[in-house]
Amino acid sequence: MPQVIITQRAATGLTRCREFLTSKNPLAAIRAGQVLEAHFEQRGNNPEMGRPFTELPVLRELKIEFGDSGYVALYRYEKIEDRVYVLAFRHQKEAGY
C-alpha cells in the first residue's frame, strides 16, 4: 500500500480550510477532519481513483464531499516509489490551487 505524503503546500491549504471552518462551526471542523483523513487513507488503497487533472494529466484531483460542497485535493501517484504526494488542497468554492 502506497505511503501518503502531504506536501507543505497542501498542509497550508488544509490548515487554512480547517481554521476557517473552526471559526464558523468547531464541531463541523472535527467531522471534516475525520472525513479528510479517511479519504487520504483511501489514496493508499486506490491511488489512481481521482480524476486526471485537465491541465496536467500526470496529476489527479480528488473531490471530497462534505456538507453542501466539499474540498478538492491535487495529488500525484509515483508507482516506482509507491507513494502518493498530496500537492495542494482547497475548498471547492475557491478558485485554482
TrEMBL record:
Pfam families according to UniProt: ParE_toxin
Keywords: Toxin-antitoxin system
Matches recorded under Gene3D superfamilies: RelE-like (3.30.2310.20)
Descriptive protein name: Plasmid stabilization system protein ParE
Listed InterPro entries: RelE/ParE_toxin (IPR007712), RelE/ParE_toxin_dom_sf (IPR035093)
Organism: Sodalis ligni
